[in-house]
Amino acid sequence: MENQKENSIDELLLWVVSVDRRLVLMEAMKDHTIIKASDIAHETHRSTQNISRALKELEDKDLIKCLTPEKATWKKYILNAKGKEVLKKMEDQYYD
């Protein structure tokens, strides 16, 4: 069972790093406990739409959780346990 979980984390890591906007978002998550699309877009010089799309993709893969799902805009997100595992593995494999 542990090996199966590890494989899914590996697969999710490859999925994240395969698209630039996902990678940028996960890197930004290292420095923030709670994020909003507009904040990350401003910091990374990307469009809010680009970051919002990445947030939606990560949410669909159960890597982040929306803290304010009732809001239409200015939603706040945090990494969940699976997202933290992927981020840790990403740091271990791709950064010194």
What fraction of the residues are assigned to beta strands by DSSP?
5-15%
Overall form: globular
Structure class: mainly alpha
Number of helices: 5
Q: What's the topology here?
A:
Elements: H1 2-17, H2 20-29, H3 37-44, H4 48-60, E1 64-66, E2 77-79, H5 81-94
Antiparallel strand pairs: 1-2
Explain what this protein looks like in three dimensions.
The chain has a two-stranded antiparallel sheet. It is built from five helices and two strands. It has helices at 2-17, 20-29, 37-44, 48-60, 81-94; strands at 64-66, 77-79. The protein has one domain (2-94): Winged helix-like DNA-binding domain superfamily/Winged helix DNA-binding domain (Arc Repressor Mutant, subunit A, Orthogonal Bundle), CATH 1.10.10. It is mostly helical and 96 residues long. Helix 1 (2-17) packs across helix 5 (81-94) and helix 3 (37-44) packs across helix 4.
Salient structural properties:
96 residues; mainly alpha; two-stranded antiparallel ribbon; 5 helices; globular
Summary of the model, kept short:
By secondary structure, the chain is mainly α.
